[in-house]
Design a protein that fits this description.
Blueprint: E1 2-5, H1 12-24, E2 29-32, H2 42-45, E3 52-54, H3 63-69, E4 79-84, E5 87-92, H4 97-105, E6 111-113, E7 120-123, E8 128-132, E9 144-148, E10 155-159
Parallel strand pairs: 1-2, 2-3, 5-6, 6-8
Antiparallel strand pairs: 1-9, 4-5, 7-8, 9-10
Amino acid sequence: MIGILSDSHDHLTAIKKAVKIFNKNQVELVIHAGDLISPFTAGEFLKLHAPLEAIYGNNDGERDGLKTAFSDLCILEDFKDISYGKRRIAVIHGHLPPLVDSLVHCGKYDIVIRGHTHQFEISNGKTMLINPGECCGYLTGKKSLVLIDPHDLSYEMVEF
């Protein structure tokens, strides 16, 4: 099981809840699709029982601080190309929609994970597009994440 979240925007209470959900569901990998915002959030992500893959978002201005704070968890980049079992996963924040569309249609990936819009979205096709919504709940009033089985691509959107 893979846990997916995005746009946590340094909301510590929401991050704590998300980490508890991931740990309770014994996810094997957590993917964060950007907008971590503050280096102090790394302390909560250190409580994960699974590895973390995370990328920068458009609001992650303190990149040097984030890079240092998250250095024990993962290497932060603008884009990730992840192989997980037989699945190829692209992770991009998504503030440049043509890049998201290109990744979905290029045929290289089984799953493209994006954030930025704060809107939950999953579309199935040759390539599955996943936007887990927003962890912070600031724009929609809904805090959400996604749990996905990488074998059959079944998923659950979890509001918390």
